[in-house]
Write a structure and sequence with these properties.
By secondary structure, the chain is an alpha/beta fold. It folds into four domains: about 120 residues, 3-Layer(aba) Sandwich (Alpha-D-Glucose-1,6-Bisphosphate, Chain A, domain 3); about 140 residues, Alpha-D-Glucose-1,6-Bisphosphate, Chain A, domain 3, CATH 3.40.120; about 150 residues, Alpha-D-Glucose-1,6-Bisphosphate, Chain A, domain 3 (3-Layer(aba) Sandwich); about 80 residues, Alpha-D-phosphohexomutase, C-terminal domain (TATA-Binding Protein, 2-Layer Sandwich). The chain is about 45% helix and about 15% strand. It is built from 18 helices and 17 strands. β9, α11 and β10 form a beta-alpha-beta unit. The protein binds 2-acetamido-2-deoxy-1-O-phosphono-alpha-D-glucopyranose and magnesium ion (MG). It catalyses: N-acetyl-alpha-D-glucosamine 1-phosphate = N-acetyl-D-glucosamine 6-phosphate. It holds the Pfam family AMG1_III.
């Protein structure tokens, strides 16, 4: 895209410069003025026409005419895809584009792209293909996919189909077959609490489209209504997993009844969080920690009933709610490891176990089965001396392995996994939520001059530099019941993140603010204080 834009500026400057500083406006019927003043305007309308056509995914028209005006005049106007005039918002963009200086063209084009919510991925994808071809490489263009689908396809390709068919359809077939098998196994039971109704917020990303395709394979075992499916709203804007997790409220546009399970994906569908409104209409979050404990508890039970000698562990980050860690270690008696933020750290650590469950609190996670675990399950399944009870459990474990996308966190696969477990337990979201009660928590962002002045240790739970910050945090935290707080530089945004937990939401907010202020003071805060 950058290359394009640079070319647009270069050609503009060279062949169609804006010489006069006269403001010209898209009026009643396009731009209309002396022909000699229109050259750069018409060039720029060529640019706008392409943007409009991409936005509409249709042909649009550009008319050059002075209509009823004198001969020395001329004009240009755009015709929208259904044959009518362009809407007012486009007239505004046209006016901006016509009047910016030659060097401001890039910024103006970018802002139209973003205002009209236009996807530039096609151009970026072309750039990628150019890079591959120039090196003599070959590529398969799978078009639009979720991130975890591509992870799946890479493994399938490199295992010659051993992990599944290397096609998007193969992905749906593999997951849905496992899901149907696991549900059918218990088809005869009557379910009291588990309902098949589920609301899904697609974050206006790729997940909604992919979910629609998956649903065709699920034999109506799930009754899913999709919100934020990308037909109108903006990507991740007041919706999606991150918004719901951090804001702890329903996404934009989602209408739900109490007690019905809801889930939000993120834009590329590698994260998922669940939530519901309880009988008092209060929002209840079932985040990555709640998913991790649900999955770990279930698999732990399955493994112990299978009689197989397999160790199971759970990997979290410092963002995991303190109650979840306590529940896992004390109730489930599953060992927990804490690693720095970022899936690469969690995934790596999870490989230390026969069965490694990992989840970030924000809903990114999966389960890894080691080669040894896969081999033991496979051998047990083939064994002839199993009682029918044991066989059923081993088959279940083996089908679970097929249901889980082990390559990376996957909103679709994780959703099916959660649904199977809830169905098996015959749980509604309230029963799931009851396992443990989250400590109130708060995340804040603090802007500083250079976030790298903050370095951390102990899986990011303690600050090393700047000097004095950790002892200041310790002092503040000691004033709060069940208080815990840590700070770290974000790896994806130019901010320092503050996390806090305490006994009440009010105290948690106070704690987060006090720690945020210390960061601001001791680590070079800029702009508004937290
Ligand atoms: C608190 C939080 O949710 N941090 C996120 C966020 O990283 P930061 O380094 O905190 O900006 O984006 C990462 C990539 O998606 C994700 O792995 C991580 O969990
Ligand atoms: Mg993602």
């Amino acid at each position: 895209m950058e290359a394009f834009l640079e070319k647009a500026v270069a050609v503009g400057k060279d062949k169609h410069p804006r010489n006069k500083n006269k403001h010209i406006q898209y009026g009643t019927a396009g731009f209309r003025t002396l022909a000699e003043e229109l050259d750069h305007v018409i060039y720029r309308m060529g640019i706008l026409a392409v943007i409009a056509s991409k936005s509409r995914k249709a042909t649009i028209g550009v008319m050059i005419t002075a209509s009823h005006n004198p001969e020395k005049d001329n004009g240009v106007k755009l015709i929208d895809c259904h044959g009518e005039m362009m809407p007012a918002s486009w007239e505004k963009s046209a006016t901006v584009l016509a009047n910016v200086g030659d060097d401001e063209l890039i910024a103006a084009i970018k802002s139209i792209f973003s205002a009209e919510n236009i996807d530039c991925s096609e151009q970026l994808s072309q750039s990628l293909q150019d890079g591959v071809v120039v090196m003599g490489g070959e590529y398969i263009d799978f078009g639009l996919l979720s991130t975890p689908q591509l992870h799946y396809l890479v493994v399938c390709t490199n295992t010659n189909g051993g992990y599944g068919q290397p096609t998007e359809e193969g992905y749906y077939v593999k997951l849905s077959k496992a899901f149907l098998d696991l549900c059918q196994e218990q088809d005869s039971r009557s379910l009291k609490h588990y309902k098949k109704k589920l609301y899904v917020d697609g974050a206006n990303g790729v997940g909604a489209e992919k979910l629609k395709l998956l649903l065709k394979h699920l034999n109506n075992l799930l009754d899913i209504e999709i919100f934020n499916d990308g037909t109108e709203g903006k990507l991740n804007y007041q919706c999606g997993a991150d918004y719901v997790k951090v804001q702890q409220k329903l996404p934009l546009g989602m209408k739900v009844e109490g007690g019905v399970r809801c889930a939000s994906y993120d834009g590329d569908a590698d994260r998922i969080v669940y939530y519901y409104l309880d009988q008092d209409g209060i929002f209840r979050l079932l985040d990555g920690d709640k998913i991790a404990t649900l999955v770990a508890g279930y698999l732990q039970d399955l493994v112990s009933r299978s009689g197989l000698d397999l160790n199971l562990g759970l990997v979290q980050t410092a963002y995991a709610n303190g109650s979840s860690t306590q529940y896992i270690t004390q109730q489930l008696k599953v060992p927990v490891a804490c690693v720095p933020t970022g899936v690469k750290h969690l995934h790596h650590k999870a490989q230390d176990f026969d069965i490694g469950v990992y989840f970030e609190a924000n809903g990114h996670g999966t389960v890894l089965f080691s080669d040894t675990a896969m081999k033991k399950v496979k051998e047990a399944k083939q064994g002839s001396s199993l009682s029918s009870d044991k066989r059923q459990i081993i088959v279940r474990l083996s089908t679970m392995i097929d249901l889980i996308n082990q390559t990376v966190g996957d909103a679709l696969s994780d959703m099916l996994l959660v649904e199977v477990i809830l169905r098996t337990h015959d749980w509604n979201p309230g029963l799931w939520n009851k396992c443990y009660t989250d400590l109130p928590n708060r995340q804040l962002k603090v802007k500083v001059k250079d976030r790298n002045v903050i370095s951390t240790t102990d899986a990011e739970r303690k600050v090393v530099t700047p000097e004095g910050l950790q002892s200041a945090i310790d002092n503040i935290v000691s004033e709060y019941k069940q208080g815990r707080s840590f700070v770290r530089p974000s790896g994806t945004e130019d901010v320092v993140r503050v996390y806090a937990e305490a006994d009440t939401q009010e105290n948690t907010d106070k704690l987060a603010k006090a720690v945020g202020l210390k960061v601001y003071e001791l680590a070079g805060g800029i702009g508004d204080k937290p």
